[in-house]
Every structure is written in structure tokens, then in C-alpha cells.
Amino acid sequence: xxxxxxxxxxxxxxxxxxxxxxxxxxxxxxxxxxxxxxxxxxxxxxxxxxxxxxxxxxxxxxxxxxxxxxxxxxxxxxxxxxxxxxxxxxxxxxxxxxxxxxxxxxxxxxxxxxxxxxxxxxxxxxxxxxxxxxxxxxxxxxxxxxxxxxxxxxxxxxxxxxxxxxxxxxxxxxxxxxxxxxxxxxxxxxxxxxxxxxxxxxxxxxxxxxxxxxxxxxxxxxxxxxxxxxxxxxxxxxxxxxxxxxxxxxxxxxxxxxxxxxxxxxxxxxxxxxxxxxxxxxxxxxxxxxxxxxxxxxxxxxxxxxxxxxxxxxxxxxxxxxxxxxxxxxxxxxxxxxxxxxxxxxxxxxxxxxxxxxxxxxxxxxxxxxxxxxxxxxxxxxxxxxxxxxxxxxxxxxxxxxxxxxxxxxxxxxxxxxxxxxxxxxxxxxxxxxxxxxxxxxxxxxxxxxxxxxxxxxxxxxxxxxxxxxxxxxxxxxxxxxxxxxxxxxxxxxxxxxxxxxxxxxxxxxxx
Length: 512
Prior knowledge:
Helix content is 77%, strand content 0%. By secondary structure, the chain is mainly α. The relative contact order is 0.12.
């Protein structure tokens, strides 16, 4: 029976154990958003598919997670926070096990969809429960510890994924969740089942959710299949585009007119929420696209192992972990729009630095932009959540945080598909231009003669030249995308200053 009283905070060892289990639940879920990034070439090779097809492993998880987020509030109100959180952790663990035993790319994608769908309630659930078990005077500390897991996990993801890919079978990037997830679910259920939140019968917006799945799914499939199907020269791609467009319009109309919408789009009438979320989504999408692109380039073109690709990415998270507590203290004293500006400017500088890389770049040249990105990350999430939630009434805060998470996650999943498509298309363009310039003229002849004097046959020399040509084409494609990322980040500054200054610092508890 649902208790009618608010249970007292926990103390002592029980508090420490429950807090650790809740933090591990968040850590495990966030880890799985990045752990597969550096492992994509390994997964692709193991399953016998192209590297660009393996990005479905990332986008399938992100889309399913984004769609499940709007359901979180309804589930917790209907069944209770404890029950929903523990069930989500358990089912997420089951899905992780299935991912680990996947026998093909298709089966892995299906299980990743299951995993993403189960992950939706995990972060808000752990956040709400963390607040409830700590005494009021220590809740700021509790949220600080909770937030740190969302920053540590992205650091550990590429490092752990790289180590597993180089030393174990790739399936262990998912199987390591099994003991952690089972332990987390058991400890949380055992310690919190008597602290269940009140429940009530709530209507569910079935129509809105169906339309959401239709248009998001159609658009994501179109983006993932488009480059191999020659885009709008394919009837299938045209049909998917029409379904996505019509589904989106119908979904917007439905949600704006339904009495109990799954996604409360009327929140966009709030100026800060509208411009803040556009900036938040753009910044996060560009960040996510670069987190995906950089390891792919390092491994497929520069010869880095998965472990080294993960280590190159790690400094950004380390810097963010160190600076975030300092930024949190400063956020209550200065205009957070200044912090957001610092974030976008540092992101732009980081991408601009990457645009100057070459195929002979040393390790420091690769790490330096990551350090600047770490400064940006330390300011980005805290300031953007504060701006977005300014002026949102307390009773609409769950809907606002859910919608903000939804737009950010969906933007990131679309960006993951678009960046790999753009990378390959720009590479093809640059390769054709380089080939036209080289042709059969003197530069090619001199290169072939030089390689011949080194003892290479004509066929071997041609292979070396072709490899260099492809490498340079991918370099130019990468720098094009880095330049575009820098410009989009600089544009984010303009959006920030279209918002009003927050009158008081919000508890940025949904920073990830």
C-alpha cells in the first residue's frame, strides 16, 4: 500500500550504500551513451559490416532513449518512482546482456533499441531518489555527487570501450553492465521499496506517443539509409521523408490540442525555454557528433588503436570534472549567460583547433583541443539548464526537464547520422578533386618513380599513392566538419543573448 507520509531521510551506512547504488545506476546508463563510440570499427569488423552501418548502434540507443523520456513522468506518477527506477535498471541490464550476445548487426540494433527504451526513467529516477534519501541540508551535496557521475561516465566510456575492444571481445562493453545492474536493482529495491512515492491513475497520451514514434523513427531511418540509397533518388527515402514530415506536423497539432499531452509543447511559449533549448540542442548535437567523428577518424585513417582513441578523448571529461564545482559556485554570483557564452566560445575554439590538424599530428596536438572542450563542458550543462528552466512554474518543471532532455537527445541522434553521411560525402568530393589535380601528370609520375626506387612494384606504388590520396581526402572532410562545428558553436552565442537573464539560480539537477 502506498504510504501517505513522507519517509525520513536515511542515515549512516544505509545512506552510503543506497547513494552508491543510485549513482552506479546513473553511471551505467550514461556510460553506455559513449562506451561504444570507439568500438564501432571493431564491432563493424566482427559483424562483417561497414563502419558507417555500425553507427546504428549509437543512433538506435539515442532515439529509443529520447522517445522513452516523455513517458517517464507518467510512469512514475502511475507506478511510483522506486518501482519504475528499479524495473528500468533490471530491464536495462537484461537488454545489456542481450546486446552482449548479439549475433548480427540487426540483432544488436534491436537490443540497443530495447536498452535505450529502458534507460529513459533511470536518470530522473535516480535523481529524485537521491534527493529523497538525503536530509535537506545535504541535498546540494547529494546532487553534486549525482552530477559528477554524469561527467565521469563520458570520460570512462571511451577509455573502457577502447581497452575492451583491444584486449577482450567487444561484447564485454555491454556484458559488464550485468553484475552492476543486478546489484544496483537489488540494493535499491531492498532499501527503498518501503519509501515508494504516492501513485494515482493518470491518462496516457497514446496518440501523441504513436505519432512521436512514427515521425522520429522515419526520420532517423531516412538519415541512416540515405547515403547508401542515393538520398531522394530512392523511392524508399522519399516515402520516409514524407512520413516523417506529415507525422511531425500531425504530432505538433495533436500535442498542442490534447488535454494531457505526452510532450507539453506549450512550454516553448516561454522565451528562455525556446531559445535556450534551441541553443542547448545545437551545442549538444555538435558535441555528440564530434565525440563520434574523432575516434572514427583516428582509428580508420590515422592508425590509432581503440584504447588510444579513448585516451585522446579522456582529457575533456577530466577537465570538466575538476572545473564543474568551481563553475557551480560562480553560477550563483554572475549572469549565467556569461558562463554559457564561455562554453560556446570554448567549444568553437576547440573545433577551430581541430580544423588545423594534419595526418602527421602528434598526440599533444590531438589532446590540446580536448582540454579546451573540457572547459566548455564544465560551463555548458549547468548554465544551459539554468537558462532553459528560468520562468518555468514548479508544477511544470517535470514536463520542462523531460522535454529539454527529449530535444537534446533527439538532436544528438540525428547529428550522429548526419555527421557520418557528411564525412563520407565530403571525402568523395575531396578525393575526386585531388585525383583531378594529380591526374597522370608530373606529380604522380615523380611519386611513382620515388616509390619504385624504394623497391616497390608498380602495383604496390599505386596502392601507396591511393592510400595517401584517401587519407588526405578524409583529412579535408574532417576539417570541413570541424570548421562547421566551430561556426555553429559561435552561432550559439547569439541564441544565448536572445534569452532573459535568470533572476535566480535554478537547481541544475537535470544537467545531463
